[in-house]
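Shall we go through a protein fold together, starting from nothing but its sequence? Please make up or recall a protein chain and show it to me in full. Go ahead whenever you are ready, and we will take it from there.
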Amino acid sequence: MERSADSETSLRIAIQKSGRLTDKTIDLLKGIGLRFDDYKRNLMVKCRNFDVELLLIRDDDIPEYVQDGICDLGFVGANVTAETGANVTVLRDLDYGVCRLSLAARKNGTIQKAEDFEGKTIATSYPNITRNFLTKKGIDAKLVTISGAVEIAPRLEVADAICDLVSTGNTLKANGLVELETIMESETQLIQTNKKLSVGKQKLIEKFLVRMDGHQQAERSRYIMMNASKSAVPTIKDIIPSLKSPTVMPLADDDMVAIHTVIPIDKFWVVMEKLKAAGASGIVILPIESMIL
């Protein structure tokens, strides 16, 4: 695939055409202000307001396309990059598409621990990762590579066990399987080619990362406002796990102030209880669209 004439000043980003990562990746791109036409009907989509072109392909092909410089960046699961062994740089772990690659076998079967896989047949879509794990454990097992519906392999007597992606574990349970050993943890990553990039592309990537970091930080944070007495401010400042010192503003009541700050969403409820105990009132929490750190 040849690059266009403006390839020295624009970015081509590979994303999954369809699958478990597609919608969340598209939401992330829209969240950082990228605007583009309907991506579901096209292989290549040009952004209208940022010098970026999206290439929508199979997730298994993304690491190789980025490695070869056909694409400058790619959004892909860590499991896919590890399986292909592509020579790329991981720029960010993105905290969505979280799952794990695990060995599983029949519930109450003869395989109950890693050592029991000795001499058995394992069906998987990730033969390289699985083989490396078994080799490190000193386990000799036969691998059968299957491209999909790995979980039914034991029922079809194609294999004794499987090595497959697990998120909730419901698919394993539905097929009478139990998770026995986690081989690797995985999540969506932003990867970059190791091919030499022009100065223009490097600058665009920097802008892209600033937007993305701000958006993701905003998703993990909330803007919080409250009223409190002036005497309570020192205690409240010690309670708030804010990015920076909170904003303190006077109110009509000379003894009262308004306090505004940003806190991590996962700490809000615990912090709120402490704030109320310290004398805060009228606590309001608001979502944040984006942040520039």
Remarks:
- The longest strand covers residues 177-186.
- The two ends are 37 Å apart (CA to CA).
- The chain has a mean pLDDT of 90.
